[in-house]
Amino acid sequence: MNSMNHITHVKILLIEDNTDHIDLFKDNLEMTSFYHTKPDITASLAHGIKLLTDKKYDLLFLDLELIDSGIGNTLGTIKNLTKICPVVVLTSLDDRETILNVIRKGADDCLPKSDLSPSLLERCIQFNIDRRREREKLLKSEASLAEAQRIAGIGNWDWEISTNELSWSDEVYRIFGLKPQEFRANNDFFFGILHKDDRNYVQATVSKSLQGKKPYNFYYRIVTPEGSEKIIHEQAGVSFDVEGKPLRMTGTIQDVTSRRKTEEELNRYRNNLEAMVEERTVELKKINDQLKTEITNRKEIEKILKTKTCELTQSNEELGRFAYVASHDLQEPLRKVVSYTELFESKYKGFLDKKADKYIDYIIDGAKRMQELISDLLRFSQVGNHKKEFEPVDCNNVLDTVLFNLQLMINENHATVHYETLPEIIADRVQIIQLFQNLIGNAIKYRTKEAPVIKVLASPIENSSKDNGESAAGDKNIPSRWLFSVSDNGIGIDEQHKERIFLMFHRLHGRLEYSGTGIGLAISKKIVERHGGHIWVESESGKGSTFYFFLSP
After folding, report:
1. DSSP for 80-127?
2. Which of 149, 185, 277, 390 could form a disulfide bond with 168, CB atoms 3.0-4.6 angstroms apart?
3. Torsion of CA 538, 542, 544, 548, to 10 degrees
4. Residue 422 backbone dihedrals phi, psi, to 5 degrees
């Protein structure tokens, strides 16, 4: 016995009504390494059961002669009270059949009183204390597994075919609309809650698996006792004896009702978007044909045609990109949830280790990415629909707010943000905060190995032209307009990508390199355009970037 695992003080309960036998037990105990232990002693089985209810014991010794109802019933009652406390039965009988029968009925050990000695008692206590430890570990492991199943929404079941004994995990009960362990698992209840149109299909699938000696993987519907219809995904395998007879079937089930409904909604949404794209394309062609016929030789009309065409083309492209997101990017996290959940089911049924936690992390990661995409799409769509009236906005106050919002990111990257006194402008304050936050956040994100250094400047411009920002400093007629710049020492941008970066979902880097959805600059562009301005970038790869924009509300 490893001395590191040897415990010399334990909490023992002795249920014995014979004073001589009590003295014998105590005398032997005092001659073991557990001599410090003072056992609780009671002569009444009923009082002993009450003590088990009120206190926590490491080990129970029980006189066989005190069990006046069936030994199996008594031991069952005790086991229900204490899941991990071993029960050692003391008997005055010394025949092998009595000892074997006591153990078969549920006792962890059985000692003849006539053989009781210090060495035998010490070995018995140490062995059963070790057994208690293992039970405690197993109980914690089972609790962790049950929690993991609850989080993942996966339950497991076990069917001993030879004895027709069926067991369900707590999550199976919850999926079936029941309280955990509400009653003993049975096939009659299961087939009773199967959707009437799926019963024959389920029975045929199970029978085919048993006959063909192959696992199965399929979907079916149930109706819970409360009347809720659910879609269930079940996987199971069968083990056979040497003669090829089925011995045991084990499997997992998962409630995939929400997932199926989400998939159906996404499919409907994608189809609607495709129809909208097609409808707008037809509309665009019709308008183009009409304009070509009606305004061929008129310059102003040609300008209107060009404007209409560009607007409709841009709208059509945005709808197309959105359809792509709905059919691909939004479903990618969902597919990851499904694949890693099924991997968890197939490889770790009945166990829980670090890999299971890793798979759960994948599930959470996929769900967060889906939420991020949807959130960014919503923000993009809201920029042009924002109805708040423009008002005086202090850009110094705006920048203070932005730096507060980005404080954690700035500290983690050891970034420095320099800025001079900034002007007051007429604008939508919330959107101006979002604009600066996107630009400064990108300047920190797309950094080199050097600590990020960001400069925010503003200079008055006096040019009424709004067609491009490069010539904005030539005219002195409009002193109320300002040219802003946000520069950094980051990784820079290739010349060929300077226009592309302002398009929705056009990323220059993979998700493993930099996080995000590729929509931040598209939102920034839309904010600037809503304020009647223009935004552009000057940059070289590896030499940092400077984003310029001006506003003309």
Report:
1. HH-SS--EEEEES---HHHHHHHHHTT-SEEEEGGG--HHHHHHHHHH
2. 185
3. 20
4. -105, 155
Whole-prediction pTM value? Answer: 0.36
Distance CA 188, CA 198 (A): 15
* Residue whose structure tokens are 């097609």: 278
Report yes or no: 527 and 448 within 8 Å, Cβ to Cβ: no
What integer pLDDT is reported at residue 470 of this predicted model? Answer: 43
Calculated CA dihedral for residues 138, 159, 347, 204, nearest 10 degrees: -170
Taking CA atoms, 9 is separated from 34, 84, 90, 484, 489, in Å, by 6, 18, 21, 76, 67
The answer to whether residues 283 and 309 touch, using CB atoms and an 8 Å cutoff, is: no
Residue 81's DSSP bridge partners are: none
Residue 156 Cα to chain centre, angstroms: 19
Strand ordering across the sheet containing 109-112: 40-42, 12-15, 59-63, 87-91, 109-112
Distance CA(48)–CA(441), nearest Å, equals: 68
Rounded distance between C-alpha atoms, residue 336 and residue 332, angstroms? 6
Least confident span in 177-181, 288-292, 431-435: 288-292
DSSP string, 317-352: HHHHHHHHIIIIITHHHHHHHHHHHHHHHHH-TT--
Looking at residue 471, what is its pLDDT?
40
Residue 273 makes CB contacts below 8 A (sequence gap 6+) with: 319, 322, 323, 326
Mean pLDDT estimate for the chain = 78
CB 229 within 8 A of CB 222: yes
- Rounded-to-integer distance, Cα 82 and Cα 58, Å: 10
What angle is formed at CA 207 by the lines to CA 202 and CA 212, rounded to 5 degrees?
Answer: 130
